[in-house]
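Lecture 7 notes: from sequence to structure.
We start with the chain below.
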Amino acid sequence: MQTNFKLPPVRLNPNGELRRVGFEIEFSGLTLEKIDHLLLELFDGELTKKEKYKHIISTSYGEFEAILDFQFLTKREIFNWFLQNGFEDRDFYEFLEDVESFIADVSSIVVPYEITTPPILIEELDIVETIKENLKQNGAKGTGSSLFYAFGLHINPEVYSFETGEIVDILRAYFLLEELIEEILDPDLTRKLTPYIDPFDEGYKKLITDPNYKPTQSEFITTYITHNPTRNRSLDLLPLFTYLDEELVRSFLPKEKIGKRPTFHFRLPNSKVDEEGWYIYNSWNSWVLIERLAFNKEVLQELLKEYQRYLNSLLSPTGKKRYRQKVLECLIRL
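Predicted structure tokens for the same chain:
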């Protein structure tokens, strides 16, 4: 079966099984009930309303989540607070229901609805494009529909190795290709101005892309968190680091909400579900480009040296042009 989703150079996870990828698609313009109906029609699943604003659709692929992505509602914090403080009046709770519904209606203007997919086999990723097409046909709105919509598409590829050197090389490859990938994906200005994808600092990028940087796992995690004590990076490694060494991560970030999982968390892409010519596979294929560079050690080392030269000559008017040309030359060889 022909597909527009490219396969990465390493298809198996550390356990020798076919790798999986999870997606988080943010959008507006639909209700939870409409989203439920859409997913049930596509996958013939079973609906469970786990929480008022968080629904689970169980399918043969696994569990899809449909939520209004606002923790105050999905965790029902209004109700929980009053329950914990001894309020039990039924009329009062009916009033709270009305208040909560009002907050949901207002929040949906600026807070996205989100579909979170189960981990999907890399050979079956076309179903994610099918979801996007159905969202579009049913009136979903994406990143560019409003100045308020800083909606993103998050991609969570399962790692192919737990070796520190391989994870370092993925981050290196991302830094080396970052400017090119930003041009390809063109993150919306609203997302750049909000803290959802804060950039890595130049000092950290210079450290990581030094060809001689060979940290232990604990050194790598510690240095990363020291420079990036937040989940809001375009490539977020905290879920993976928490999976590898939760005690170390929590010692630095005890209050940060981090779900541990053996995946990278690629947060850069927009979610333009309503726009002609926007496809999820373009965002995924950009990620595959990163993995191809990380996997090709000869080209990676060559580009690392050029990148260090580029960082040391940022004031040169020809430095950026020379580095860009070198990137394009290297990509041909991947």
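Points to note: Residues 71-79, 106-110 have pLDDT under 50 and may be disordered. Residues 164-185 form the longest helix (22 residues).
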